[in-house]
Model the fold of this input.
Amino acid sequence: MIDPPVQVRTSTVQGKGVFATRALKKGDCILTIDDSHIVLDESSLTSEQHAFDLDYLEDRIVVMQAPEKYINHSCDPNVFVKSENGARKVYAMRDIPQGEEIAYDYSINGDNDGMFECHCGSKHCRKIYQGNFFKLPKTLQRKYLPYLDDWFVKKHNFEIRELRGT
Ligand SMILES: C[S@@+](CC[C@H](N)C(=O)[O-])C[C@H]1O[C@@H](n2cnc3c(N)ncnc32)[C@H](O)[C@@H]1O
Ligand SMILES: [Zn+2]
Done:
């Protein structure tokens, strides 16, 4: 996607965020994530990249690029990520009005031990974000099943089948 309908600006949630520049419809593809910056040697990165910019994806370590690197977490997300033909794409989970902040729930497809105090401000805020999908309440895990990416389902096949009851 050459010109995604988003803008990076200061967020009330934390630092910078990504905002819709026009109204988006549920199911719209908003942008394609640039996963081409794969890191083979982490020691070549700046300390800032070490702290914030890495995405641990399957067995790859990727340096995230703008605008997607500025997408904040929300406990009431409006987008999710799905891989298609080898590219990760960000889709609208629901209709998104112009000007609304784009946010996904980082715990979806999460299997890491990341943690921070959440300031998403949603009514459903869990207050402390933690990066392990399987530590979410079971009802939320089930709600998020349709939004899991294929690589995550494949990697955690046993747990996901148990969750689906299959
Ligand atoms: C990929 S960055 C998101 C962009 C970030 N706001 C920035 O300006 O660089 C991820 C970091 O943003 C912060 N963050 C994202 N969502 C947050 C939230 N809901 N509450 C508090 N901090 C959040 C956390 O520090 C997290 O490690
Ligand atoms: Zn929250």
Notes: The first strand starts at residue 6 and ends at 10. Residues 81 and 90 are 5 Å apart (CA to CA).
